[in-house]
Amino acid sequence: MQQDFPLVRMVNISKCFGAVRALNNVSIEVRHKEVLGLLGDNGAGKSTLIKILAGVFPPDGGEIYFNEEPVKFSSPKEARTRGIETVHQELSLVNIMTISRNFFLGREPTKRIGSIALLDKKKMDEECSRVIGEVGIRVRSPNEYVSILSGGERQAISIGRAMYFGAKLLILDEPMTALSVKETRKVIEHIEEARESGASIIFITHNVYHVYPVADRFIILNKGVKMGEFDKEEHQAEEIIEMVASSEGVL
Amino acid sequence: MRRVIQNLSLPLAQIRRWPEFGVILAFSTIFVFFSVLAPMFFTVRNLTGIFTIVSELGIMTIGIAFLMIAGEFDLSVSSVYAFAGFIFVTLGNSINSVLALLITLVAAGCIGFLNGTITLRARIPSFIATLGMMMFIRGIMMAITGGRTVAYHGDLIVPTLLTRFMGHGFRPSHIWFVALTVLFSLILTRTRYGNWVFATGGRKEVARSMGVNINRVKLINFIISSLMAGLAGCIAINRFAVANPSFGIGTELEAIASAVIGGTFLTGGHGTIIGAFFGAFLMGTIRIGLIMVGAPAYWYMAFVGAIVIIAATINIKLRRLEM
Fold first, then answer.
1. Is pLDDT above 80 for B316?
2. A43 falls in which pLDDT band (50, 70, 90)?
3. Terminal-residue alpha carbon distance, chain A
């Protein structure tokens, strides 16, 4: 199914932190079922932009449209109920909790006994087992602690969780940092699977090589300004690196 | 042969996974130790006597453990314990004791609310905020009363509900302790709120990003910690029928030690209420046991100190196998 309007449109977004202008009239759109690479160096405004989209804080100016409907998120929870899920490398799972408890954190299923709502542990364990099986992680039980998992496995569970809860837009914040080559390939597979099941993905990175194999389109930010927008078909990775570098005045 | 060994080691591995394994083992060892050494130790009268002091310490420990799992401390519990006793006696001497108890618990809850608000708003460590609160409340009590003891001569409703003998040395406080242990254990392990408590203490940034209102969780747990300390204070005061402003000095550390012995992480995010229950029992058993084998009371501190270190070490080792 091909929609002719984009999933998300962010129009003329501005944001200041004190005297620092983090974003200056940035407009981006994310189409249905595409992987968008959001590129830029540290401090380029990538994180600020997606935090606005994920409801962490509001923009100072500009509008956001989700499926062409204007939205204003006052909390990450609100964004999440719309199907916008963020996966941070470091901020997705609690190490000293079990996989199953992490998986449902904030969205725990319950069953009522009289007027008391107790955790539906059976459902939690079963559903969690199914998803970790689907993303190809081998653990003895969903009651293992997250701390025994590798970085790649954590990413896989985070992505699996987002899809389980019906993510329409998956925001991945530097998902490849500190992963081995093999795990990087795994994460790319998970991203492709997510796209196939109907989600759009924003992939944030400062490293073009991380996102080049999987992205359909790229947007380059620098110092809070959008420097350019490119389709992959038209450009090689090296050209894009050059654009990132030149936009920063390195070349 | 190998299969046999695997079969044998399987139950052990499963038992070891219980977070309470360490404390139950330590408690059993100490219990057997004193039963053998002191002839009068293993008698109904003595065991219920231990139960009585353990209930008062233990109710406080439950609150402390619940808060520690959410990643915060409460050193003010010992002062709240004495403060609650004082308020109860003062009010109970002039009004209905049930009403006096309710007002006392509300006052204790307010101190918890204050602890939480100071910690979260001023963004200072709860260790410092509640240390200040501990000294502040104790100081005010000392100043107002001049250190005098106040006797309770109100009605017998609350004393009967909380701590009057029911036969064979059993008291209602034992039932309260067990009931509160079950209640808070259920809340922690079987409700959504419990999951949020673990996440808040385990990694508050993750909890927040997953939509948990971590400040609300912490505030509620501060209030629970104070409420439990207030209840423990009321129980103790009803047992003695007198209140003294120097009551319970140092019990905050005993309660924290009990929680740690029971497997609660000082750093938050992990722990059990059942463990805190046995932690408190371990403390009480050592205290009474040492008296019964005729050791001078000073040995209690030394013994508890050693147990805390050993228990914390064992717990960490056991957790390393899992995490």
1. no
2. confident
3. 42
Residue with tokens 């423990």: B232
Please say whether the beta carbons of A175 and A135 come within 8 A: no
Q: How far is CA A138 from the centre of its chain?
A: 24
How far from A151 is each of A165, A194, B124, B320, CA to CA, in Å?
Answer: 21, 19, 33, 19
Q: Which residues are paired to A16 by β-bridges? A: A21
Count of H-run helices and E-run strands, chain A:
8, 12
Give the separation between CA B131 and CA B141, rounded to whole angstroms. Answer: 16
B23 touches B261 (CB < 8 A): yes
- Highest mean pLDDT pick, A18-32, A81-95, B108-122: B108-122
Amino acid of residue A34: E
Query: Using the beta-carbon criterion (under 8 Å), do B269 and A86 form an inter-chain contact?
Result: no
Give the per-residue pLDDT at B10. 53
Nearest to A226 by CA among A5, A57, A27: A27
Give the closest residue to A155 by CA, choosing from A198, A106, A188, A201.
A188
Query: Would residue A38 count as lying in a domain?
Result: yes
- Using pLDDT thresholds of 50, 70 and 90, give the confidence band for residue B256: very high
Asked if residue A235 lies in contact with residue A52, where contact means CB atoms within 8 angstroms, the answer is no
Token duo for residue A114: 């009289």
Is the ipTM beyond the 0.95 threshold? no
Q: Is the dihedral of CA A166, A172, A177, A180 positive or negative?
A: positive
Q: Is residue A147 part of a domain?
A: no
Confidence bin at B4 (pLDDT 50/70/90): very low
Q: What is the CATH number of the domain that holds A56?
A: 3.40.50.300
pLDDT above 60 for B198: yes
Q: With a CB-CB cutoff of 8 Å, which residues 52-91 of chain A face chain B?
A: 75-77, 80, 86, 88, 90-91
CA dihedral B223, B226, B227, B231 (to 10 degrees): 180
The tokens of A243 are what? 């654009």
- Interface contacts (A, B; CB < 8 Å): 74
> Rounded to a whole number, what is the distance in Å from the CA of B271 to chain A's nearest CA?
11
The number of distinct structural domains making up chain A is 1
pLDDT in tens, B160-171: 999 888 888 899
Residue B55 has pLDDT above 70, yes or no: yes
Backbone angles phi, psi at A20, to 5 degrees: -85, 125
Instruction: Say yes or no for a CB contact (<8 Å) between B194 and A95.
Output: no
| B21-317: in CATH 2.60.40 | no
Domain of residue A72 covers: 8-92+162-247
Please write the tens of the pLDDT for every residue from A168-219: 999 998 888 878 888 888 888 889 999 998 999 999 988 888 888 888 999 9
- Rounded Cα gap, residues B236 and B162, in angstroms: 9
Residues B267 and B174: their CA atoms lie apart, in Å, by 30
Count of CB atoms situated within 10 Å of the CB of A225:
16
Q: Among A80, A91, A119, select the one facing B211 at the smallest CB separation.
A: A80
Question: How far apart are the CA of A250 and the nearest CA of chain B, in angstroms?
Answer: 35
**Separation of alpha carbons B275 and B96, rounded Å:** 36
Please indicate whether, in this complex, the C-beta atoms of B209 and A93 are within 8 angstroms of each other: no
